[in-house]
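Got a spare moment? Tell me how you read both lines of this record:
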Amino acid sequence: MEIEIKKKLASNWFKLLQDIICNEIEKIEGKNNIFKSKKWDRNSKKNEGGGEFRILKKGKVFEKVGVNFSEVKGKFSKEFKNSIPGTSSNSKFWASGVSVVMHMQNPFVPAMHFNTRFIVTSFGWFGGGMDVTPCFEDKKLKVWFHNQLKNTCNSHNKTYYTKYKKWCDKYFYLPHRNEMRGIGGIFFDYKKKNFEKDFSFVMDVGLCFINIFKEIIKRKYKKKWTNKHKRLQYLKRGRYVEFNLLYDRGTKFGLRTGGNVEGILMSLPPKAEWE
């Protein structure tokens, strides 16, 4: 399959997934709160693509949720290209993806994150994953969440779940705090052996995320909470901010490749606190 066809297939899916996720979120929120959308260009003079980020704030369920889509191309800087595979002879790149970050009104509903992407340098590969960050322990929810991921992974390859869960645990770790960001999930990168199989897996991961966030919200959003619970949520969000600004690959990639700053930083919560 030609690389341009692969790019088109991946980009079209990510855009469609953005629409599906936003539609499901607006169903949960009701008619009185809908997404605000902003389109952007990476470099309109050079026709280097762009994207659209959508944000919904101050909802009955979502305190802030952002759903981003991008399709960009250009050249990596000399400093950055050495950290990206396939750039030794040419610094050109193309990238498309969709990312979601949810910060909830109810402290008992976990923060949730998801992204999938397709990047092309001298070759193309998929990456992505999802994780959940609760403020309060719920062993049953953790087991259920990981079973959903395991079932999705196993439908493609029975080695995926163990490998990608381990990768996620290692990735979403704050070394300066010596603690995990949340209860884990899956994380994968550099999937390039078989486009058709990898693309099928990436699509299923996206659909799995939709089922997961809908079920978690259904279970948790009516649970009563107090200001004490909200304070603990703000402190937990502080850890979220620390990870995203210090360690997150997507944040670094976006900022170093001329991405939209508002869209990149939409992952940050509307309010966080530190002791």
